[in-house]
Amino acid sequence: MLFLGCDGGSTKFEYLVADAQGACVAHQTFPGMNLMQDGMEEYARGIRTHVRALGIDPGTLTHAAFGVTGYGESRTAARDMTAAVQTALGHGRCTVCNDSVTGWSGALGMQPGICVAAGTGSVAYGQDRHGNGARAGGWSLRFGDEGSSCWIARRAANLFYHQADGRLPRTQLYSAFMREFDLQDPLYFSVEFEEAHAKTAADLAAFQRKVLALCHEGDPQVIALYRSAGEELALLVQALIGRLDFGDQPVQVAYTGGLFNAGAFLIEPFTEAVQALGAAVVKPLYRPVIGAAGYAARSDLRQEALRTMMKNLANEA
């Protein structure tokens, strides 16, 4: 048996092919795609290119699972994404779902609990003791996705505006952004920022790393911004606890996504806010792409064999 897992988002598409024992047969990463931004034709072409590049015959796959950003988030997205995957594979032995589902699958090993994903965007997904699932957040990179890398980048730009015109005291952020864009007048900032860092979601998310550097310099407003991000992400947990049934046991809350590389600046306020809800923060077991491979195998392997597969795959890939 062979299982394919895909973790696909705006920043990257990562693929794993594994056998039932968890031996890695193929593992590749490609640039990100977004159906809403790239259009159906380009998106479908990208999936076909990825599958061919894996170097395996798709017909040999027992099952595949694609956890992809944007699934189900428009009237036709679920249908179009499923069609793109089935065409690329040449068969219908596949599951296509939102990447929040495969993120949960990896982070919690498909056990009851909630996984908060914060990278380019932000979303949370949970399953309870009855197998019921629900998600919160992930509404829009432009207008929602609070607590994400894009959200932080936009909020940091807003801090610059407030510092430039006197609504807030100037901190390291102001001088750092003036240097970054070689500005003589702060009024030029918006044009320069949008041209250099806001053309795509991936560009905007990458700018977050420059903002994070100001935390290490002790900028109080930026440190407070990351605290706000952690608290926003905890609100996703609160929403799901209210919608799912976890019984009397503390809810296990895992986290995943590149933004958590911010370390204590984000994880500490997130943990404090989650613990205040009576839930417990746990480190993720596996990466989302391993979660996708496990999700692909869930109907073909018994629970113990599935756990062994995912554990072995984590040691290899």
Query: Which descriptor suits the 3D outline?
Result: globular
- Tell how many strands the DSSP assignment holds: 10
What fraction of the residues are assigned to beta strands by DSSP?
Answer: 15-25%
Cα-to-Cα separation, first versus last residue = 18 Å
Q: How can the largest sheet be summarized?
A: 5 strands, mixed
Question: Your description of this structure?
Answer:
This protein has 317 residues and is of the alpha/beta class. It has two domains: 2-109 and 286-316, Nucleotidyltransferase, domain 5 (2-Layer Sandwich); 111-284, Nucleotidyltransferase, domain 5. The chain has helices at residues 35-38, 40-53, 77-89, 99-108, 149-165, 172-180, 189-197, 201-216, 220-243, 264-275, 288-297, 303-316, and strands spanning 2-8, 12-19, 24-31, 63-68, 94-98, 113-118, 122-127, 133-137, 252-256, 280-282. The strands form two sheets. The chain has a five-stranded mixed β-sheet with strand order 3-2-1-4-5, with helices on both faces. A five-stranded mixed β-sheet has the order 8-7-6-9-10, sandwiched between helices. A hairpin with a 3-residue loop joins strand 6 (113-118) and strand 7. Helix 4 crosses helix 11 (288-297) and helix 8 (201-216) crosses helix 9.
